[in-house]
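pasting for ref
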Amino acid sequence: MQHFLRVCLICLSISALSACKTNEEKANAFYQSGLALLDAGDLERAAIQFLNVFQHDGFHEDARRKLAEIRLEQGDIGAAYSQYLRLIEQYPDTPDVRILLARIAIDASNWDEARRHGQAAVALAPEDPQAQAIAVALAYRDASQINDTAALAQAATRARTLLDANPEDEVARRVVIDNLMRSDTPGDALPEIDRALARDPENYAYHTARLQVLTQVNDMPDIGLQLRQMVALFPDDANLTQALIGWYIVQDDVAGAEQYLRELAGADTAPIEGHIAVVQFLQNTQGPDVAQQELDRLATANAGTLNADVYITLSAAIRFEAGERDAAIATFEEVLARAEPSDQTRQIRNTYARLLIATGDEGAARAQVDMILSEDETNVDALKLRAIWLIADDRAGEAVLALRQALSQQPRDAETLTLMAQAHQREGNRALAGERLALAVDVTNSAPAEAIRYANFLLEDGRTAAARSVLTDARAANPNDVAVMTSLAGILLREGAWIEAQGVANTLRAIENAEAQKAATSLQAALLLGQNRIEDSLAFLQAEIEQGNGDVEAVTQLVQIHLLAGNLATARSTLNEALTRFPEENSLQMLSASLFAMDGDFETSEAAFRRIIAASPQSEAPFLRLYNLLVATDQPAKADAVLEAGLDALPNSVNLRWLSATRYEERGDIDAAIAIYEEMYAANSDAVVIANNLASLIATHKNDESSLARAAAIAKRLRDLEVPAFQDTYGWIAYRQGNLEEALTYLAPAAAGLPDDPLVQYHLGMTYAELGQAENATTYLTRALMLAGDQSLPQFDIARAKLTELGQ
């Protein structure tokens, strides 16, 4: 017993001594242990020990540095960045950490963060060459956004000097390479890129830059070699495989492309991804029947396995596209009824959900997605579908959470990034939306769809130079893409950049396909017209038509230019001649009917439009043109009859329903107008103008809380859009919710932009009244009543009462 007590006392004394250790001593013990493990090469256990340090000393600078360095060495850039951020929060005046953060941000194209940390680094260590390189990179980025050639050259020269002094400076190197790629001799960038790859052979950005240069100089053999090397280095990048297949196609080597894909796919029983790529290729090059035969062959070879189910359902999906919808749906249901939960089964469910959406059975599709996510809450395809529905339901915040989870699985998925941008736009956060769209361009190496989408976003914000830069990069990466060149040409024409626009026209003319030739003709005529060379533009189009190069669109353009020049008679004779060549062409008949109206022959114009409607009752345009003609000639009853006939023929026409809603609103039947907009919004909730009109009508004419909450949810996306009508809607909703100062910041510019709209003036006047600014309130409410005239909306009765209250 005494022995037992002695042992207990010894144990207690040891515990007491241990308990007497200070937090500093405990932190240091963990730190030293981490260093020992680090020396032994055991990075993960060392990281755990450094994390333990922070339980006793959250401000341990050295442990934080070591942990960040480990994450950087492990390739976990996000975790490293997070640790360096924490370090800079605790020790903000640490230049080397600021430099690291800025360099990581530049690598990720996160220019806001690069600027924040880069400027701090320069302020702390202005003589440090790395900080100077970051400053040069920021200056170069700013110059590229506004296409300031002088500033670009100055920054590039400075970068060259820094790189010569320190050949290991990757920030300076990237500026030098980018500048060389933008030059008239982009091939000069290849030696510098090769030097960079010699230092970092698996750097994706440098390999991509090398591919882009080879594409710019049209070195087809080396493009093929480069793509093969990149596919080997980055096998998970499907875009690279597609690019290599495209290279084979350009070489007219379809058989070589197929053979290459089959080599990648391996045996018939190998994983399905490679074989699906073969099937997609066969479908694109030889048609759906050949693709279906391949799938049926693969299903037989894999009989009794999950792979067979995938091939069977993909074959059914092709039948679905061919119109055999019921049979295809039945095949999916049969396969899913017997399939056990697995990744492949969930892949089949995702495809099934998309087919159900195509049939209009969204409820069943949602049930399939719910089932997938109940089994695997990280399933990317299911998360994307759920996000699409959440965005459509104006639950963008929830959509962002779902998409973040998807991005954590596939951070380079362009579709997820694009959906994230849509969700941010719904929330009214255009800055975040722009970042996501920019990242989608980056991860796809300036793919056409992503680049055009981002450029259009920038144009909406008036950032023309940035949009031009995005499309210029996309053109370099996709030198034969007609859509990219057409979008870029539109900007060049607006800027009056005639030489550059002519270069695009010449490139289009050299591409031997109908789409490119048509775009080249249209662009050349617009280019001449933009320089006020009307006669030259007319002569060019006439020559194209006479040589058989001009289609109906060229004829239309020629007629429109004659009208612009005031030559109505010549326009008519040109059109009549074209009608003898294309007597059944609907667009030319429409143009003819419009010319009659322009010449004052309204009866003939009306008769012509009615003949077109009778011949083409499913065409929307003639209904719209005839309706506008009848309104313009003061025949409202006939106009209404045409509108009703159009809606009977085309009940889903957006423009006709829009006119119908407008007519109801003009008559004071607000509920009917709202009902139409609700239907339009349900069909296309991405349309900003529809969203604005619906939110505006609800906020203006409904008084219950639930209606106001719905209007506010719809109008979130309008917050950053400097369009007077949108500002009025958002501002009035802010007023209705009691946010008067916020309301004023939107309603004041709205009233200035729409000075003749009585309701907009009323909204601003009421806001001033609530803010106690009686003089301003009187001014705008009086103006609203003057503009309203004899309109009988209740808002104007409220305005009169408010003026009386104000003593006016």
